[in-house]
């Protein structure tokens, strides 16, 4: 008994403990590592290998060097898929980030009962893309609700234009009136003030702002009454327009000769469903900005526009960058919508890299798995590029 | 400037903010609300679209209930049974100067449904039932707008009628519900309690109708002295009725609202006059379940899709909890050589798109994971089990658990270690009980991810139709039904597939937030 202890001790209990810990750790990790090994690393290595072969799923793969890569870049379908993917990714990311940011800035206030609205805004992001695509396919039929609303909108443009014009004019008149009244009170003390802004700066008072909420309600009411009166008196009438029955899905046209209409349909759908959640995300970011920064800017006499540009935007940069990265990665791999729409749209108008890879892997009878794998490598490189740029950015953030 | 000034401004601003918030939530929820409401409509392509929903009216639902009872199938699912007499009423407006003629009422012989259901051999209500006792019960003067919108004098006549399905046997006795065998035979047989019995056709009518009773059909039998007599097939799906009017006449009222009105109001079609509440209000939902059937077993394929989706999601939740918390604990708490390298590799796996590895994984499942599937009696893994084995645990889940474990104080583990607990004991008894919120988050996001997953399932499960998960099945619905504009059924399927996630979300909202930005981007 004593002997064994003596024998073991030169190896030191510390080393024994490390070995035991290592064993335990790998035992804990075993199921995960096994899954990773089989379904990721093996798959990854094989995919790289396949991309250098002429594999077709049935015959054993033959090494052909870079031929698959050359082939895909000579393949029209691949070029279309790559263009569509980049277009889709760029446009969707821009639209949804800008839209969400704008909305968040408009709504930036401590909001009670946000929980209720939050449920509503998360709804599209928790629902599956298949469900959303099906609902939107129905909405965007030729005689669907989207086109119906567009028809209504064009019919009632006179009413809308009148409302907006009256609202703006009423607001301008009201604000000028209010400011004159304020000015009358202050000018005797500060004759040197040459403008309302200067006056406000000197007096350190808030004067009536152009977007004053109370006056805006009054202006909106005046606008509404104007529209009611005008249409009751027959001064304005709904325009006689043809029913808008645009085909959003089975359409070979391109917007600006560049963006296929069915792809635009998917962009609209994704932007619509993503903006609410991104908006909440930005709202959280906005409320994290210390108010002292705005106060300091105000002391320096910054206008609201300057405050937005020099305080809000830089403070929000990490959030924005994260949202953009996530959005780019997600949109680069877009597949579900294309598959669900399927033959309802011309393939060239909606094919993306992901769908190209899927399609070329399982083409009826003649699989082109080699080319598909080469395309998958391109997709992976694109995704990794986005991630690397993000990494770089965050490194800068930390150093600053 | 005084406080009142600022207070009114603040209130005005708050009212603006809430107005925008409400308007925006209506816009966001609009497509889903409209889709859900339309899933109750008979005509999802109605143009201009209206919010007129007769299917959700209480009076109509009451009428549907009573008609279902009259048909013999009960107030909820409504069927037409032999021996049933279904009373129905229609009111017809006849303009002045035109002869008051009764409408022509007929039970229609109509192919059921489109798509997958169209290949089934149906039993037609028209073969077994007919309209009887059509008579006018009262008349009153009224004014109605005509086609140009001008008010016209005339009379409204109320007619009652019965749709009668006479029993095919002269015998009296206990009614038995049974099914004819799956293969057609000249002599009529039926399966009663798993036993194949001979069915007697004791009347000339029954013998005549033999040819209209296909294989694999639900029938009603009369059991007397140990013998079975054919009472008649039970009409499950519908009893369609057509009410044809003279030119100029209008249908002003009927027991149920007509499904379709054509030829300027002359042809009024009732999809089913024995619907029961479910068959009336939830018709599209029932169709989703009933019309897609497995041709071999006659079971609902849609139900299988729901089951498959649940099976895959639940098993993946369980395995993820087990394996991800073990691995996450190892990364967060244990020291071992190669840890940093391994963790970098884990991060790497999260960046590589699924489209890179799917082909190799597809081949693995095709060969049943080197023959492993044979142990379970499966030739390959192109079935829900394939989705399970390939998704036992993912890097993102391990990452989530690691983050959670790291946020917990280390002292408890160390105290446990000093007391002589092994790593597993300290994991099981000390750390895990503190991580219930993390496990809830993991469970919910895993369930959601699996339930909504589309790319990988559409690679793995394509054939036979019983192997599909719900999203893949819904995509097939699009192909089968959208061409004919049958969006009612598609939307009903979409609503069913969204319900579990929405419920989960409403109950466990805070656990979703962790993952929201990643999943919000519909890629």
From TrEMBL, chain A:
<feature type="transmembrane region" description="Helical">
    <location>
        <begin position="86"/>
        <end position="107"/>
    </location>
</feature>
<keyword id="KW-0472">Membrane</keyword>
<feature type="transmembrane region" description="Helical">
    <location>
        <begin position="119"/>
        <end position="140"/>
    </location>
</feature>
<feature type="transmembrane region" description="Helical">
    <location>
        <begin position="160"/>
        <end position="177"/>
    </location>
</feature>
<keyword id="KW-1133">Transmembrane helix</keyword>
<feature type="transmembrane region" description="Helical">
    <location>
        <begin position="256"/>
        <end position="283"/>
    </location>
</feature>
<dbReference type="InterPro" id="IPR000515">
    <property type="entry name" value="MetI-like"/>
</dbReference>
<dbReference type="Pfam" id="PF00528">
    <property type="entry name" value="BPD_transp_1"/>
</dbReference>
<protein>
    <submittedName>
        <fullName>ABC transporter permease</fullName>
    </submittedName>
</protein>
<dbReference type="InterPro" id="IPR035906">
    <property type="entry name" value="MetI-like_sf"/>
</dbReference>
<feature type="transmembrane region" description="Helical">
    <location>
        <begin position="214"/>
        <end position="236"/>
    </location>
</feature>
<dbReference type="InterPro" id="IPR051393">
    <property type="entry name" value="ABC_transporter_permease"/>
</dbReference>
<keyword id="KW-1003">Cell membrane</keyword>
<feature type="domain" description="ABC transmembrane type-1">
    <location>
        <begin position="82"/>
        <end position="390"/>
    </location>
</feature>
<keyword id="KW-0813">Transport</keyword>
<comment type="similarity">
    <text>Belongs to the binding-protein-dependent transport system permease family.</text>
</comment>
<dbReference type="GO" id="GO:0005886">
    <property type="term" value="C:plasma membrane"/>
</dbReference>
<feature type="transmembrane region" description="Helical">
    <location>
        <begin position="23"/>
        <end position="45"/>
    </location>
</feature>
<keyword id="KW-0812">Transmembrane</keyword>
<feature type="transmembrane region" description="Helical">
    <location>
        <begin position="370"/>
        <end position="389"/>
    </location>
</feature>
<dbReference type="GO" id="GO:0055085">
    <property type="term" value="P:transmembrane transport"/>
</dbReference>
TrEMBL record, chain B:
<protein>
    <recommendedName>
        <fullName>ABC transmembrane type-1 domain-containing protein</fullName>
    </recommendedName>
</protein>
<keyword id="KW-0812">Transmembrane</keyword>
<feature type="transmembrane region" description="Helical">
    <location>
        <begin position="384"/>
        <end position="401"/>
    </location>
</feature>
<keyword id="KW-0813">Transport</keyword>
<feature type="transmembrane region" description="Helical">
    <location>
        <begin position="487"/>
        <end position="508"/>
    </location>
</feature>
<dbReference type="GO" id="GO:0055085">
    <property type="term" value="P:transmembrane transport"/>
</dbReference>
<feature type="transmembrane region" description="Helical">
    <location>
        <begin position="341"/>
        <end position="364"/>
    </location>
</feature>
<dbReference type="InterPro" id="IPR000515">
    <property type="entry name" value="MetI-like"/>
</dbReference>
<comment type="similarity">
    <text>Belongs to the binding-protein-dependent transport system permease family.</text>
</comment>
<keyword id="KW-1003">Cell membrane</keyword>
<keyword id="KW-1133">Transmembrane helix</keyword>
<keyword id="KW-0472">Membrane</keyword>
<dbReference type="GO" id="GO:0005886">
    <property type="term" value="C:plasma membrane"/>
</dbReference>
<dbReference type="Pfam" id="PF00528">
    <property type="entry name" value="BPD_transp_1"/>
</dbReference>
<feature type="transmembrane region" description="Helical">
    <location>
        <begin position="306"/>
        <end position="329"/>
    </location>
</feature>
<feature type="transmembrane region" description="Helical">
    <location>
        <begin position="15"/>
        <end position="34"/>
    </location>
</feature>
<dbReference type="InterPro" id="IPR035906">
    <property type="entry name" value="MetI-like_sf"/>
</dbReference>
<feature type="domain" description="ABC transmembrane type-1">
    <location>
        <begin position="306"/>
        <end position="508"/>
    </location>
</feature>
